[in-house]
Amino acid sequence: MPGFGITLGYTLLYLGLLVLLPLGALVTKASSIGVTGLIATASEPRVAAALWTSFSLSLIAAAVASLFGLLVAWVLTRYDFPGRKIVDAIVDLPFALPTAVAGIALAALYAPNGWVGELLAPLGLKVAYTPLGIFVALVFIGLPFAVRTVQPMIVEIERELEEASATLGASRWRTVWSVLLPPLLPGILTGFALAFARAVGEYGSVIFIAGNLPYVSEIAPLLIVIKLSEYDYTGATVIATIMLAISFAALLAINLIQAWSRRRFGHV
Amino acid sequence: MSDVSSALLPPLRARGPVITERHWVRRLTIAVALVFLFLFLILPLVVVFVEAFRRGLGGYLAALQEADAQAAIRLTLTVAAIAVPLNLVFGLMASWAIAKFAFRGKSLLITLIDLPFSVSPVVSGLIYLLLFGAQGVWGSSFMAHGIKIAFALPGIVLATIFVTFPFVARQLIPLMQEQGTAEEEAALTLGASGWRTFLTVTLPNIKWGLLYGVLLCNARAMGEFGAVSVMSGHIRGLTNTIPLHVEILYNEYNFVAAFAVASLLACLALLTLALKSYLEWRHGAALAGGASH
What we know:
The complex is a heterodimer of chains A (268) and B (293). Chain A has helices at 4-42, 45-78, 84-90, 93-96, 99-110, 115-120, 131-156, 159-167, 172-201, 204-210, 220-229, 233-265. Chain A is mainly α and 268 residues long. Chain A has a domain at 54-219: MetI-like fold (Orthogonal Bundle). Chain B is built from 15 helices and no strands. The chains are: A mainly alpha (268), B mainly alpha (293).
């Protein structure tokens, strides 16, 4: 086969110049700040609050997205209803819809005078311009990850297992709980980790609905943008480094889940 | 005898089908899923178009014909026209090297190609600013030669390339690995050049996967917000892409115009989803091997 040298060479050059070199610039800048400087900036109250907001809301939103993702994936693979194919295609909307568009649309819907906000206002629920708004945007952005990781695994379930369980006298609920769900767990966890990793770094769909109040509804990526507009490259770098560490931890978790799943269930 | 055995065995189908849920459970589950999807996915899409046409077709068209909106549309098309082909060529090169040859460090290379997907958009912009910004590593030397990268077209293109980097490659690598090298080897043995083998043997085999990757790459390139926002400097009429223009209009409380311009991107998203579903439905087998995300 010809072309190994040129294709691999081009791949390494392009990857090196456009991905590794800029990421290297971040690492260099972070190491020039040093661990003590890193901790000092990260423990500034406003930075710590933003990191906590991003981290905690991403965890909750990823969990909710996983729950509904499982439900949606189940309904799409197991049940038939009119418009199923279209619903299946629509699930990918958060991947395809630019985040700024999603952001202003969600803000318009959940604002106190918006279609949904209007219904929630009499209940005393304020969604837009509160942390709850951030949560809504992060569920939106995380949903397709949750659905698309579990869906193929539900398709692959062997119907014989369910039949065996039912023939042995298990109720349907028990079959679902102890025969069908356990093998889906790695998929659910992988979807959760992907949704979480995406949510922590999400910017466009959040900033319009968040209200961006420091200490309350200010997310870490927004604080990076604010630091940059103040020419505080050091502060921005510290937050970026911590966020990179969080997303690599999520990636590592995904790999561990999949290795565990291969050992436990013989598939990914 | 037969009477006894039929009395002892429980009637298998007496309680309805045992490998699915009861009728009302199914109905309820479908209803919950659909209400959730309606609230979270359909309504945001609908609200974009309703708000865009709040002042009628005239207001809608006026917002799109405004000079800054036109400039934003041109800039977005320009950026995509540079970034997508570059990532397309890279995707072909990388998948050829990875799928057709065995070498050490291959899985590390694949992980590195996927890396941009796990970096926050804002961080993706920041890393280029650290290189090319005024305080950046090379910022001042480029500026001394009168070359503007940050807050200009090159910076926006670089940020866009970064966030759309893996799309084509990760679609093609598993697909080409699946297809192996037998067909290419046959063509080479018959005397075809490497380039001709690629064009007449490999390319037809991967064309649908390639189109699929380009489609997703383009959608992200035209819609990217965070990374481009950091690198663009938000100069109206000059460095504002469509998503950035939407942000400016929205922050000026010019909601009709903001949603009108946003509706262009919503249409792009719908078109992308439709084509993607069509490719999956019509050419699913030719895409196989490539995980959709």
